[in-house]
Amino acid sequence: MRNISDAELKSASVPQLNHICEELRTEIFDTVSVCGGHLSSNLGTVELTVALHKVFDFPRDKIVFDVGHQCYTHKLLSGRADRFRTLRQEGGLSGFPKREESDYDCYDTGHAGTSVSAALGIAAARDLKGETFEVIALIGDGSFNNGLIFEALNSLHILNTRILIVVNDNGLSISPTVGGTHDVLSELKTGMRPENIALFEQYGLKYMGVYNGNDLSELLPALEEAKKALRDSCVLLHVVTKKGQGYPFCESEPEATHGVGPKSGEGEREYSAALGEELCALAERDPRIVAVTAAMTDSLGLREFFRRFPRRAFDVGICEEHASVLCAGMATQGMRPYYAIYSTFLQRAFDEIIHDVCAQNLPVTFCVDRAGIAGPDGQTHQGIFDLSYLSFIPNLTVAIPKNVGEFRAILRAGASFDGPLAIRYPRAGLDGPISPLEIGKMEILHSTTSDIMIIAAGERCICIAERVRTALRGSGKDVGIVNARFLKPLDEALLGGLPQKYVITVEDNALIGGLGDAVARFYRNSGKEVYSLGYRDEFIPHGQPKSLAKRFGVSEEALFALIGGLYARG
Known about the structure:
Rossmann fold, 5-stranded parallel sheet, globular
């Protein structure tokens, strides 16, 4: 697509802008169809982003996108149209705002609820430096439920600065928006309770709304008025958009088209599907089983559970910390909560895991999806830290199943396990046989008379170890393999009984604080030599998981080379 200049946009009439919007919408649809990405959210915000670019002066003015997955039109209008077809590809454009990518991206985002705080920080710095640009936070109604937003609103009077908050209200995050804040916005949309405006005014906001965010003739005057109002106060501009706008299938299936990605490989199935099946089976037999999610019912495989057990199913919106404490509260009363969440989002609830769940030793099971390198969504979505931030928490058991079958077995064990349990797993994997399972015990998959033992955590790493072992046996060499299906508690009995001199750990996690560190601490001063493959101490960008894993330290090639060096030493 051609690059549309700022001068062309600012001089365009509404009919010309509408034509530009259709160009942009077509480019987004065509690109996401090939590259994957966030589709329906971007289709719905084309007119809104075009209007913001016409009324404001970017990059002098600053815009902070909450989450940031709806920034594709912004990228197309900021000199990146000629590179847009590299979206989410390794070395190409990120699917989220990136300061290193363009001056138009003033703040890196990727998780919900940060936009208002960041915008306030930028505005406070502007005031201190005596500058005069405008600052906008663009946030969806799903993110507006997040507690961090209300911490930011609480400080408006304290900071005494001016920002524009644009609430893009489409009734959805990934799943339909829920909660009291959603109800307030809905009532304002329908005109039922205009007194709700007072809620925002008490924070020091001038409320303006409700405007059609897909109608430029209505939206442009509203933004001009909001810009003038910024001279005297902070402004909340409430606009309504249609997720998937312009493509009927996306409009009718906004959840299914929120994120479009590659299908699972041949023979693979989503771990989330197995989660949903097992939780439904458990709930049939055990009335204590409850399921909790933070606005990701379908993505985490819980739709059927919500349909069959609605009184035991809880979607709390994008409130990961609250969900953790909710689980803790239910567990104190004898329930068995299963909290399904992506690895990258669980880290937002770190304090609650420690303080509310583990310090009370409560039977909450954390189902940690998308663990390891997640791929095209980039550094804010890579699940490479959970083994590190979970493994040192007292009372917490950390499980890493080798396949979907073992995942099912650990889920079933969680129903009768009297303590906190975290199960981390990738997006998709293979069904497979499992040996008898005992909580806290690793499994020797292949014994060996050689002096090298590989201890691998999780399906990806075990598959790497298996392929390397097969290649080595073809040349007359051998290694053993241990399935580290539990990192915590560490299986000291099994580790202490291994006779091999050389121990190699492989994990789909950052090296610092993970499996390798735990095994190395155990073998300290034992005479054994421990070598570890994991991700280096740096953030991992977007790209394909296998390519990124190889680039950042976890691959067959790296393992084969390491073993070859040990054999060469004799």
